[in-house]
Amino acid sequence: MAVQEVAKHTKKAIQAAGDSSHGLGHKLREVALEIFIIVFAVTLSFWLHGLGEHQHEQQQVKSFLHGLKRDIQSDLEQIDSVVKSHHKFDENYRYLASLDPATPPDTAKFDAAYEMISTNSFLVPQVSRYEGFKSSGKLINIEDADLLQKIVSLYQFDIPKAELSFGGWKYHNSRLTAYLEENIDDADTREGRLRALTAPKGKRLLKRMQTYPQLYERYDTVASKGKDIIQAIDKAYPEG
Considering the entire predicted model, what is its pTM? Predict the structure, then answer.
């Protein structure tokens, strides 16, 4: 429609300029009027197009943030479960490290504790939605600068740092597992397991299995910032 209007008024401007029945002053006024109409039509067209693009971008942002809220809520549930699991691991490894090779342990408790050595628990963050929105260059469409900063900080710094801390725990777990595989001749005997765990090296490896406070702190940071982001999204879109 804008192209048609521009063409129509351009034609009128040309006709007015070539109309010999009017004086120069009248011609200039007619041409100026047509030029004004053309400029106004083009400007209005660009403005409406920009408005439509902005509304579309903000609808995408709204959809993204609602999805991100669900992702973070899932991560918060995971973190709660992971932290509880690690507290159990800490208790379990303290028990194993306290065993006396000269004192037979409670068989059921010992067997359960030994089986837990092969268990771990860690956060598997929901990052695909964030990474997809980031790679498409659409993060800049989030107009709330504070919210944008919190989101970027969470996904670019806090979650990776938590994963790095878990890597340290996993490293010690792999060393303990490798030690047991190398030092238990008969993996089916309780005596062999107890002997390996109560040996000096076994006790050292067990003591290193205590979860670093740093890991708890970093999971707490991820959870705290995640909750802040959820609150900010709810504030931005109270209607849901």
Answer: 0.75
